């Protein structure tokens, strides 16, 4: 009877862990970024040696900026024609460049790519998925979708850090959309992105 009780207790604990891992209760809460926090970030070009201030990306026409953690970039890239029509650049920032990560990512993203060594676009509270991510159903669904699309995930370095997507208007328009990943591959709704960029008023 004692062994049965121990076994049932272990099963119960495991099921409770799986249940909690598939809710938002164990996730680090995201803190909204401010324009002042983002604009002074130093971004390193991946095509030359230039380092720019982040605010230069959006100070005239605004920008859509994807803080990359997984390689789910095709949905945003599909908006490139609408963004070009409005004169709004599409940009990706990555945390680091390990191995062939950026080279492998580049064919799947229709915009410029910068390295955010300070990880400003992943903060102000840097969030990690952690080991519980491997028992979240949504994570496995996203991983399989990315794998079928030919993407390879990065679990090296700080590959467990969650990112997001920003739509930022010029001047004092500020942050018009801020989407934070809740789990790996949690993509932003492209309809929300389009709605946000329609609010951008370019600086004359």
From TrEMBL:
GO terms for molecular function: antioxidant activity. Keywords: Antioxidant, Cytoplasm, Redox-active center. It comes from the Eukaryota. The keyword Cytoplasm applies. It is found in: Cytoplasm. The keyword Glycoprotein does not apply. GO terms for cellular component: cytoplasm. Its main location: cytoplasm. Pfam families: AhpC-TSA_2. Belongs to the peroxiredoxin-like PRXL2 family. PRXL2A subfamily. This is Peroxiredoxin-like 2A. It comes from Neolamprologus brichardi.
